[in-house]
Amino acid sequence: MIKSHRLGWAAGIAAATAAALAFTGSAVEAQPDSHHGGPASPAANKRVVEGFLADVLNGHHGSHVQRWWTADAQFHAGTLGTTTGRDNVTALLSSVVTAIPDLHADQQDIIAEGDRVVVRLVVSGTQTGPLIGIPASSRPVSWDAVDVYRLKNGRIAEEWAAEDLTAILADTGTYKAPWIP
Question: 71: buried, middle or exposed (CB in 10 Å: 19+, 13-18, 0-12)?
């Protein structure tokens, strides 16, 4: 299947569907810039997002969302809807890493400005459990993702996840778009 022919953006896999990183240290949270007393720097915000992706997605620790997200967090998943509240985001991302226990999110790019961090990923693994309503297929899956994060006080407050849902549907054998060879 040629990835450049895959179309369709929808989310629900964060980050989950999100990023394999060189970052392998312990949880690092951005703190307000103590020197200036202002908000965290873009570099500190990148470290938070990279830590979250390494811990929750690549580390397969869905319950660790609690460490990285604000209590009133929102996960915007396009046509799949918005998940509100850290506990609900935890449940969503836990279901993703449970459905794809060997999930690997390979970071391609990361850009930060102000309180926003944008990450482009290639996510892959084997779908062994139900995923966004798709029954377990035991098939390898791979899709592209672009996720935008907004941080507040060193934690993720919002994510806008854009996942290639058509690729997920094709790889799981659920639906094959006519343009996919």
Answer: exposed
Domains delineated in the chain: 3-171 (3.10.450.50)
Contacts of 67 (CB under 8 A, 6+ apart): 27, 29, 55
The model's pLDDT over 68-96, given as tens digits with 9 standing for 90+, comes to 999 999 999 998 999 999 999 999 999 99
Question: How far apart are alpha carbons 181 and 179 in whole angstroms?
Answer: 6
Backbone angles phi, psi at 86, to 5 degrees: -55, -40
154 neighbors 138 (Cβ within 8 angstroms)? no
Q: What is the pLDDT of residues 29-63, one digit of tens each?
A: 444 443 445 689 999 999 999 999 999 999 999 99
- Measuring CA to CA, which residue among 79, 106, 86 is closest to residue 9? 79
